[in-house]
Amino acid sequence: MFKKSAVFLLTLMLLLTLSACNSNTDKVSPSGDSSLKETPLNVVVSFDAMREFVEAVGKDKVSVQSMIPDGTEPHSFSPKASDIEMLNTADLFVYSGMGMESSWVDKTLNAVENSELVVVEASIGVTPIKFTDEEVIAKKKEFDPHVWLSLKNAEIEALNIKDALVKMDPSNEAFYEANYSEFYDQLEALYNDYATKLSTVTHKNFVTGHAAFGYLCRDFGLTQNSVQDVFATGEPSAKKLKELVEYCKENNITTIFVEDMVSPKVSETLASEVGATVEIIYTIASHEDDKDYIQRMTENLEKIYEALK
Q1: Residue 149 three-state SS
Q2: Digits of tens for pLDDT over the chain (309 positions)?
Q3: What's the CA gap between 11 and 273, in Å, rounded?
Q4: β-pairing, 205-210 with 92-95?
Q5: Closest alpha carbon to 44 in 59, 69, 66
Q6: Cα distance between residue 271 and residue 275, in whole Å
Q7: CA neighbours closer than 13 Å in the CB half-sphere of residue 11
Q8: Concatenated DSSP letters of 10-45
Q9: How are strands ordered across the β-sheet holding 277-281?
Q10: Backbone phi, then psi, for 288, in 5-degree steps?
Q11: Contact 184, 294 (CB under 8 A)
Q12: 218 and 150 in contact (C-beta within 8 Å)?
């Protein structure tokens, strides 16, 4: 009888020990507490700005891949078979919309064989800037697609992403809500700072490599002119270049802004012609200089402010 009781007790102790070991391996968190280990949501985004917004809201609960490689001009991107396969294994796909990915997004999604994939068009709810240029309209383009370069629009895009993450992962709603609030407050603080600064400048006009900053201009009551059109296509004609020279002289333009993925040659020629300097400005379509969205937008606004003072 004693031997049977001893065997029973030893067996029970062994089972309890194994149970405790299993419990410890199943319960892990970055902070070392006892919360359950979670597998991050697998998120694919179209380009870098969308990655910034997803990571700002999702933090360590998301794993994000950008479909458009860094250094690739988004306006001319064409997906490959590997991009479709990326979506076949994803939980969430986020694209900006407003025509930015219109040349490929619908046919790509139609080719995806992933019935569980959640798709978010982040610009839903943004008031669009409609094109009035007949040449642009002739290309069957309706709206300016550079939505994310507005702090106010960034709030909307991040909100749409947050709502999708909450719907997919309701157990972490408070986490996503807190992260969104933190990001929103950063965007608002930056907006308020430069709304005050830019309200004091006399000159409101600046010149860029391509017309990507229409929504930023709308935020702050500014006007952009550009070497290339909104889709960064083609070199300007001699007539266009002459008009730009006259525009720069009439508006006391002292800085010509050029974007990382747009050829600087014409901008440099224009700057030389009017006695202006050339400054890099971020479009946040690729990951640039290891800086996040807030840092790059801060630099953009500070450079514009300094040029307009």
Answers
A1: helix
A2: 444 444 444 444 444 443 444 433 333 333 334 345 589 999 999 999 999 999 999 999 999 999 999 888 888 899 999 999 999 999 999 999 999 999 999 999 999 999 999 999 999 999 999 988 776 666 667 899 999 999 999 999 999 999 999 999 999 999 999 999 999 999 999 999 999 999 999 999 999 998 999 999 999 999 999 998 888 777 788 899 999 999 999 999 999 999 977 778 889 999 999 999 999 999 999 998 999 999 999 999 999 999 999
A3: 89
A4: unpaired
A5: 66
A6: 6
A7: 6
A8: HHHHHHHHHHHHHHHHH---TTSSSSPP-PPEEEEE
A9: 223-228, 205-210, 255-259, 277-281
A10: -125, 130
A11: no
A12: yes
pTM for the full predicted model = 0.85
**Residue position matching structure tokens 């266009």:** 240
Say if residues 59 and 87 touch (Cβ distance below 8 Å).
no
Show the domains of the chain with their CATH numbers. 1-37 (no CATH), 41-193 (3.40.50.1980), 198-308 (3.40.50.1980)
For residue 281, the cross-strand partners are 259
Residue from 120, 147, 146, 105 nearest 64 by CA: 120
Q: With beta carbons less than 8 A apart as the criterion, state whether 129 and 103 touch.
A: no
